[in-house]
Structures are given as C-alpha cells and as structure tokens.
Design a protein that fits this description.
mainly alpha; about 0% strand; SusD-like_N; SusD-like N-terminal domain-containing protein; TPR-like_helical_dom_sf
C-alpha cells in the first residue's frame, strides 16, 4: 500500500512539475522578438508594414510627405504656417539652429533614414526562412521581399539626392562590428546599388491592379527607377560642381543615364508595368473658359 501511495505521489509531482513548466513557459503576446516575428507570415507582413511607416523616418508622415514641403526652403513655395520664424528664410541657420533641417519636418532627407534601412536589412536577412504552408503563401512572401527592396531603394534615393555617394548597407550590423572600416561609396556605386534593388522590386512586384492600395507595385518601382536615372543626368553630378567621386559620376555618362530613364519611362507608358492613363482628356481647353466650360471640365475630372 505504501509503495502504491509512493508511486502515486511521485507521478503527481511529475505531472505537476510538467504542468507548471508548460504554464509558465509561454511566449509573450504583447511583444515579439526577432525570432518570433520571422516564424509567422502574418507577423512578417506586420514588420514590413512598419518599414512602410518609417519611409519618412517616423510614423507621423505619409511616405515622407508633410505640409512643410522641401520646396518651401526655396523661392518656389512658401508655407502658410509660421514662415516668419523659419531660420532658412530669416538667414539665421547655423550648426546650432538648423530649423526644419534639424527636426522632424525635413528629417526624411537626413541620415536618420538609416534607421529604416536597418529595419529593411533585418527583414531581408530573415524573410527567406519564414515558413509557408502552400504556394499561395510562398507567392505572398516573395511579394513581401520585393516590397522590401523597393522600400530600401526609396530611402536610398532620398539620401542620394541630398548627399551624393552613400554608405551602402545590405545586411544587418553585428555587435562588435568595426564601424570605422565602413566608408561612403562613390556616386556611381550608389546609383548602381539603387538600380539593382529596383530591378529586383520590378521583377517581384505585382501590378497595381493585383496589389492592395498603398503598397509598392511594379509600376511604382519602374517610375522610381526612371526618376532617379533622370535626376542623375543633371550637370552638377557630371563635373559642373566638383569632380569628387562622392558627388560626381565617373563612369556613367549623362547620355547613357538619360537613355535608360527614357527606356523605362516608355515601358511604363506602353503598359509593360501595369495599365495607367491620364485623368481627363488631353485636348487644350477653349479660351476664354465660360462657366459652362469650367463645369464641364470639372465633371470630367470627377
């Protein structure tokens, strides 16, 4: 009898101990570490969504756009809010007072964009290993990866247009890494890096008719490629300002860049990256416009 009672007691303790371990050894449901994020396709998508949010450095922006446009720092535009207090309009900018260029208003063109590039690199380093259960999920994951390439290219485009040659990072940093060994790349290398990312995005992204609104598409990636190639044809980037490889192309000519920009733009117009059309007609409006003409044109635009 004692042996039976002893066996029951031991068994009870084993069950209780195992049960307690199961209860206490639970994953948090209000926070996720890097390992858990890339074990679930939905969490992976959510992580990518935050990369979209931070295209403009913080989540108070819409793709880097605010009411304070960068053109407001020139004679092109004047923001209707607080212009008399803008340091760049008053001519009092200094290292200690950068105004919009030193705070959240224009920080989508600052080095802070590297925080989002870091996020994208973490995504790309882990996304290939996310488990999928069927071909549909495999296709979704491939699309997410193509979107990540677009986001990284988008961030690098903004930085390149502000600073020229950049520090090119395509993988997560490791603790203890020697950051003093990392240097800025030339303008040629920076453009090639961006174009390579955009080519991967174009190849892997669906067209706008196959993608939910607000996410990158094949046409968006192609348009960004055409834009940065066209921008790169400017005289200032071809020796008119300096021959420094950080700000001046050495191997890319203006003619070849313009030809590439025209080629990809024509592909967009020909519907190779999705169907797009102009809003309204292309005919010149009558002059002068009557009230009836204005109303008719308004109806076409609605």
């Amino acid at each position: 009898m004692k042996k039976i009672l002893g066996s029951i007691l031991v068994l009870t303790l084993i069950i209780a101990t195992t049960s307690c371990d199961d209860i206490l050894d639970q994953k948090a449901v209000d926070a996720f570490n890097e390992e858990s994020v890339f074990e679930d396709l939905n969490l992976t998508k959510a992580y990518l969504g935050r990369c979209y949010d931070y295209i403009g450095v913080d989540n108070n922006m819409l793709l880097g756009l605010r009411e304070d446009l960068l053109a407001g720092a020139t004679d092109e535009l004047l923001c209707i809010h607080r212009p008399s207090g803008y340091p760049f309009l008053k001519g009092i900018m200094s290292p200690d007072e950068l105004g919009h260029f030193g705070n959240w208003r224009f920080n989508w063109i600052t080095w802070n964009l590297y925080s989002n590039i870091k996020n994208v690199n973490v995504f790309l380093a882990n996304a290939q290993n996310v488990p999928t259960e069927n071909s549909g999920e495999e296709a979704l994951l491939a699309t997410y990866i193509a979107e990540a390439y677009f986001i990284r290219a988008f961030d690098y485009v903004n930085l390149m247009r502000s600073y020229g040659g950049l520090v090119l990072v395509n993988e997560p940093f490791e603790l203890g890494e020697d950051f003093l060994s990392i240097n800025r790349s030339s303008l040629d290398e920076t453009l090639d890096f961006i174009i390579a990312d955009l080519d991967k995005a174009i190849a892997g992204l669906p067209t706008k008719d196959e993608m939910e609104q607000g996410r990158a598409t094949k046409g968006a990636a192609a348009a960004l490629k055409s834009r940065i190639l066209s921008w790169s044809t400017g005289e200032l980037m071809h020796g008119a300002y300096s021959n420094d490889p950080l700000v001046s192309f050495q191997s890319h000519s203006r003619e070849s860049l313009l030809t590439q920009a025209q080629t990809i733009a024509k592909e967009i117009m020909d519907g190779m990256h999705g169907d797009y059309s102009l809003t309204g007609g292309t005919d010149d409006p009558p002059s002068p416009l009557t009230e009836a003409d204005v109303e008719a044109y308004s109806e076409k635009l609605l």
